[in-house]
Amino acid sequence: MRRIQRRIALLALPTLVGSILVATGPAGAVPAGPSAAAGPAQLDDRDSVRPVRIRLTGADMLDRVAAAGFDLEHGLRRVPSGIEGEALVSTEQLADLTAMGVEVLGDDVGFAWSDQADGGFGTAGARAVQPASHEATVRIARADWFTTKGQGFLYVEARTTEGQQADPVVGMQLENDSGKGTPFGFARTMSRFVDSGQYMFHRNLFKLDERPKQIRVTSSTGGVATGVVSDWLEKAPPPLTANPSYKSDFVDGYRHPQQLYGRAKEIARQYPDIAEIVYLPNQTNGYQRKAQAQIGGTGQAAVVVTSAAWGHEGGNDITVDFVERPGADLPLAVEVAGRAVRVLLGKDAAGQLASTAAEVAEALRTRSAGLIGRAHPYRTNEGSGVVAPTAGPVALTDFLDQKRAGAPAGEVPRGPVTIPVLRIGKHRDGSKPGVLIQAQDHAREWVPATTSLESAERLVHNYRSDRETKKIVDDTDVFFILSNNPDGANYSFYNFASQRRNMTNHCPDENADPGRRNSWGVDLNRNYRVGSGHDGYAGASTSCVSDTFQGPEELSEPESKNIIWLVEKYSNIKFMMSVHSNGGQLFWQPGAYIADGRITTPRPPLGDEAFYWQSAARILSQVKAHRETVVTPENVGGSSDVLYSSAGNVREDLYHTYGIYAFGWEVGGSVYNPATGDWQGGSFQPEWVGNPDLVSGHAETMEYANGIMEMFRVAADWGRDHRDPTSRLVPGAGRYSGPVDVRFETSEPATIYYTTDGSRPTLESPRYAATEFREPGQVFHVTETTTFRWFSVDSAGNIERNYDPTKRDRRDNYRTATIRIVSR
After folding, report:
1. Distance from chain centroid for Cα 83
2. Confidence category of residue 116, pLDDT binned at 50, 70, 90
C-alpha cells in the first residue's frame, strides 16, 4: 500500500488575478449606501433595524448592495427573476435601498416553496443518474427524492448545452412517472438559473405525493434526457444519540464568549487525559472603544471628537466644552484642566463667533494635551460652518456602558483577548487526523457557538461509556474555537444584536463618528489570502462600513492570523468546519468568483468533489435524524454556486494552501411546516426554546451537533483508510466496430490521472474531470484506437495497486486498457 500527500493542482492565482485587479464588483470608492443622517437622537438607537424581504435582479446587484454597507441576511435563494432574501435595515436605509433599485417585498420574512419553486444545486457523489453521451444536448445532473415531516419532495437539476441562449430563452420541461412501470406525466416548466451573466442550469424543487422512479427533461430546442430518481438522506444509519445510554443535551442556553472560554478551560481541567487548552498567539483588539462625542449636529458646524485613550482607560472621563467669551477680535484657544477640555471660541472684530468646525477640530487635535486623538468635521463636511457654544461640558463615552435589554448579567472584560482552543483527543501528538471546528466568525451568529460546545461536551462525557465516541476520541485530534470573534460577539450580546464583524475600526474620518459605530469592523471571513477581494474576486467590500468589509489587507486581523498559525503549527489538521448561521447550506470550494465572466477559484478535482459529497451525505443524514430537518440538495456544494461569491473566505485558503478538506456550514436551515405547507427559515438568534418542531435555538443546537459528531467519524475513518482504490474504464478494453463513448468509474471517491499518448501516467498527467461543474465524469468519444494508462488516488492518499507515480521502476503497475476501433 502506498500513500501520498494529497496534492491540489492550483492555477497560478497571482498570475490569474494580476491582470484583473480593476474588474471587481465591490471595489473602489465608498459607494452611496445607508443614509448618512444620524444625529445625536439616533446614537443610542442601537436596535432600530428590522428585517425586510427583498428581491435583487442578480449577483451584480447583490455585490453592489453589500458593498454599499447594507446588512444582507444569509438564506438568500435564487428565483427565476433574481435573488430573494432578507436585509436588516432602518427606516432611512430602506429608502436608500429602494433608490438602488432593490424591490422590497414586505416585512414578512418567512417564505414558501410553491410547486414551481426556485431550484438549487446538485451533487457529484453517488446517484442513480448516469453520465450522458458526449453528444447529448440535455443532461440531468441529479434527480433526488426526500421526505420530511410526512411530505415528499423531488429536486431536479438539468443542463442544456444551449442554455446561455437568451433570445429566445431556452426552456426546459420536466415530467415524472408515479413509480415503476407508470407513464411520464405531470409536465412542469423548469426554472432557468443565470448567475453573473452566465447560464448555470435549470432546476426545481417540487412537492409530490408519490415517489417517482424516473424523470424526463425536454428542452425547447428538442433535446431529451431521462434519468432514474435517487434517494437523498433517506437511508441514514442511526445517530449516536439513538443509544439510550448516550449523553447529550448539555447546553441549556446561549453563551457569551467568557462563558464559552470558561467552560473550555474547565473541560480541560476535568478531563486532562483527553483534553487541553492551546492558546492562540495573536490577541484580539478587545471589547473596547475610544470615547467619542458628536457636537453640533450633522451640518457644516458639527465636530466629532474622539479620545486618545480607550474609554475605560480614561477616555470616558473626558469632557469637551465649547465656550463663548465676551469681547471682540478674540483668538481660538484651548484650555485643559485635568480631563476637562475647554475650547474658547474665536470672535471677529465685530464680536461675532468666527471659529469654524475645521478650525476647532484642528485646535483639539493639537492643543488638548494629548487627551483628544481624533477631531474632525462630521463625515464628508468640509467644516466651514461657524461652531456654536455648547450648553455645558459634553462628556465623551465609548458607548459600551449601556447593556442591551435581555443580555446576560455581568460586566464584559475590556482589553485584548487571548483566544483559547479546546483540544480533545487521546493522542494529541500529531499522529491522528486533526479536525478544526471554528465557530462564530460572525458575531451575531449565536447557534454555531452552542452547537460546537454541545459537540465538545458529548465527546468528553461519552468517552468512557460509548464505544463510538471512544473511537472518535482515540482516532482523531479535535480543535474547537468556540468563538473566533469574542469582541464582536460581546458587542452583539451587550450592545448591538446584529453585529457581524469584529470591533476593529479601520474607518477614516468620514465614517468615524459615533453614529457609524455599529458599522465598524472587519468581516473575518473575507480577510484571507486565496480568491480575495484584493485580487478582484466578488463578495467582499472595500468600504469600511460594509458588513463584508475585507480589511485593509489580507490577514490584517489577529483572528484570521490565528487560524493560519494553528494549521501551520498543527499540520495534522486535515479537516475543518467553519460553522455559521443561518440558512442550512453545507458547502466547500469554489467559494468565490470574478464577477466579469464568473471566473471561479480552482474547483476541486472530481475525486475531492465526490469525497465532499459523500461526507456531506453522512453529516446531513445525522442532522435529519434528530427532527427530520433536511438540508436540501440545492443547498449543498461549492459555496459560490450554492450561496454567493465570498471573496477571501477561510475555507478557500485552507483547502488550496494546505490541502485541508474545509467545509462551511450555515446551520439553522429551513424546516418544513406541514400545517402551512411552507418552509420556515431560522434566524441568527432564534428563541432558545421556541417551537421544537420549527424554529428553535435548542433544536438547531442538538441536530447540528449530530452532524459535527458525524464529521469526526468521517475524519476517523479517513485516518484508518489504508485500502487502495480501484478503478475501471467503462466499457472496457476490446474491439469496437465504430466510435465508442468511454468513461472512468472508481470504487470510492478518487482522483484519476491518465494519459492517452503512450506516456507513463504521473501526478502531472491530466486528471479525469467532470463533464461540467456539478456533473458526473466526462465522456471520451473514441474514434480511433487509443490506449488509456491511468491510476487512481483516494482522498486519504492511497494509490491504486501501490503504484509509485514519482519514479519509474520495473513494477509500473498502473492500469491500462486499449480501445481498438476496427472498420468492418
Report:
1. 17
2. very low
Rounded to whole angstroms, the Cα distance separating 571 from 564 reads 11
At which residue does the C-alpha cell 465532499 appear? Answer: 612
Could you write out the DSSP letters of every residue in 305-340? EEEEEEGGGTGGG-EEEEE--SSSSPPPEEEEETTE
How far is it, in rounded angstroms, from Cα 113 to Cα 120?
A: 12
Q: Please tell me the distance from the alpha carbon of residue 82 to that of residue 194, in angstroms, as a whole number.
A: 8
Nearest to 568 by CA among 541, 520, 529, 598: 529
Q: How far from 403 is each of 115, 399, 493, 791, CA to CA, in Å?
A: 46, 10, 8, 62
User: Of the candidates 34, 202, 222, 26, which has an alpha carbon nearest to the alpha carbon of residue 774?
Assistant: 202
The pLDDT tens digits of the residues spanning 492-549 come to: 999 999 999 999 999 999 999 999 999 999 999 999 999 999 999 999 999 999 999 9
Q: How far apart are CA 704 and CA 623, in angstroms?
A: 6
How big is the CA angle at 132 (ends 131 and 136), to the nearest 5 degrees? 160
Rounded mean pLDDT, 243-251 = 96
Say if residue 197 is exposed, middle or buried (CB neighbours under 10 Å; 0-12, 13-18, 19+): middle
- Residue 603 pLDDT greater than 90, yes or no: yes
CB-based contact 522:516 (threshold 8 Å): no
Grid cell for residue 19 = 491582470
Domain formed by 416-720, architecture? 3-Layer(aba) Sandwich (3.40)
Kindly calculate the radius of gyration of the chain based on its CA atoms and give it in whole angstroms. 29
In the predicted model, is pLDDT for residue 41 greater than 50? no
In the structure, what pLDDT confidence band is assigned to residue 86 with cuts at 50, 70 and 90? confident
Q: How far apart are the first and last CA of the chain?
A: 44
Contact 236, 622 (CB under 8 A): yes
Kindly provide the b/e burial profile for residues 505-529, where b requires at least 16 CB atoms within 10 angstroms of the residue's own CB. bebebbbbbbbbbbbbbbbbbbbbb
What is the rounded distance in angstroms from the CA atom of residue 327 to the CA atom of residue 64? 53
Cell triple for 719: 485516518
Amino acid at 702: M
Q: Which CATH architecture has domain 727-821?
A: Sandwich (2.60)
In the prediction, which pLDDT does 3 show? 66
Domain covering 138-228, topology: Immunoglobulin-like (2.60.40)
Res. 805: pLDDT tops 70: yes
Dist. CA 637–CA 770, nearest whole Å? 14
Q: Report how far apart, in Å, the C-alpha atoms of 428 and of each of 6, 46, 541, 569, 709 are.
A: 22, 44, 39, 13, 18
CB atoms within 10 A of CB 759: 9
The SS3 of residue 88 is strand
Three cell numbers, residue 297: 449636529
106 burial level (CB within 10 Å; 0-12, 13-18, 19+): exposed
Look-up: residue for cell 417540487?
206
Mean pLDDT estimate for the chain: 89
**pLDDT (mean) for 253-259:** 96
CA diameter of the chain: 114
Long-range contacts of 733-739 (CB under 8 A, 24+ apart): 733/817, 733/818, 733/819, 733/820, 734/819, 734/820, 735/820, 735/822, 736/782, 736/819, 736/820, 736/821, 736/822, 737/821, 737/822, 737/823, 737/824, 738/821, 739/781, 739/782, 739/783, 739/821
d(CA 521, CA 503): 5
d(CA 744, CA 660): 26
pLDDT tens per residue, range 582-591: 889 999 999 9
Name the residues annotated as catalytic: 666
Q: Is-contact 363 343, C-beta < 8 A?
A: yes
Q: What is the pTM of this model?
A: 0.89
CB-based contact 771:139 (threshold 8 Å): yes
Residue 431 backbone phi and psi in degrees, to 5: -85, -15
| Angle between the N-to-C axes of helices 467-475 and 697-720, in degrees from 0 to 180, rounded to the nearest 10 | 60
